[in-house]
Amino acid sequence: MSDWLDDLLEMMPVDPYPEDLAERVQARLALVRRRSRRTRHVLHLVLVLVSIVGLWLILPRAEMFLTSAPNLSLGAFEEWLSALARSPGESLLNFIGTIATWISGLASALDIEFVLGLGILTASALYGVINLLSNGAAQEEVMA
User: Fold this and answer.
1) For residue 9, what pLDDT band results from cuts at 50, 70 and 90?
2) CA neighbor of 50 nearest in space, from 103, 140, 125
3) Do 68 and 109 form a contact (C-beta atoms < 8 A)?
4) Alpha carbon of 67 to those of 61, 103, 129: distances in Å?
5) Integer Cα distance of 38 and 29 in angstroms
6) How would DSSP label each residue in 63-78?
7) Which pTM was predicted?
8) How many CB atoms lie within 10 A of CB 126?
9) DSSP-based three-state secondary structure for 125
10) Average pLDDT of span 15-19
11) Is 80 within 8 Å of 91 (Cβ atoms)?
12) Which of 23, 57, 74, 91 has the least C-beta neighbours within 10 A?
């Protein structure tokens, strides 16, 4: 009964390996690394350009977000803290009401360009975080 390893050994060529095999393998590996690096650089450039488009879509609406924000001052915060100490339930309900009013005001002013811009910037930021984390892991593997 023949073993599968014996079959594989019979299929192997008996000719000796070429003398320049190691150099060819190293050259091929260097080529693959260069292509991979070039592809990564192109992808980064595309994501930067897409992020610029996302910012271009969001910037006209940035003023709306800043002006619709509730009054945030030290006096208002101190007043809210004192109300929180007097009546926690009522002050939290007032805070939730203020936030709900702000969010509903923002939601009514959203348009497709703004949502698209937010999606683009979110995707680019997530890719950047993933890239940073994967580069850190790759460097740790090299160091180990």
Assistant:
1) confident
2) 125
3) yes
4) 10, 13, 30
5) 14
6) HHHHHHS----HHHHH
7) 0.54
8) 10
9) helix
10) 81
11) yes
12) 74
Positive or negative torsion for Cα 30, 31, 32, 34: positive
Q: How many CB atoms within 10 Å of residue 74?
A: 7
Q: What is the pLDDT of residues 28-38, one digit of tens each?
A: 999 999 999 99
- Give the span between the Cα atoms of 143 and 43, in whole angstroms: 26
Distance CA 54, CA 123 (A): 10
3-state secondary structure of 136: helix
pLDDT tens figures, 52-84:
998 888 888 777 766 766 666 778 778 878 888
Dihedral sign from CA coordinates of 10, 14, 16, 22:
negative
Type of residue numbered 124? S
How many angstroms separate the first and last alpha carbons of the chain? 45
- Residue 86's alpha-carbon distances to 44, 89, 94, in angstroms, are 53, 9, 13
Residue with token string 């007097």: 86
Q: 63 in the Ramachandran plot: left (φ > 0), alpha (ψ -120 to 50) or beta?
A: alpha
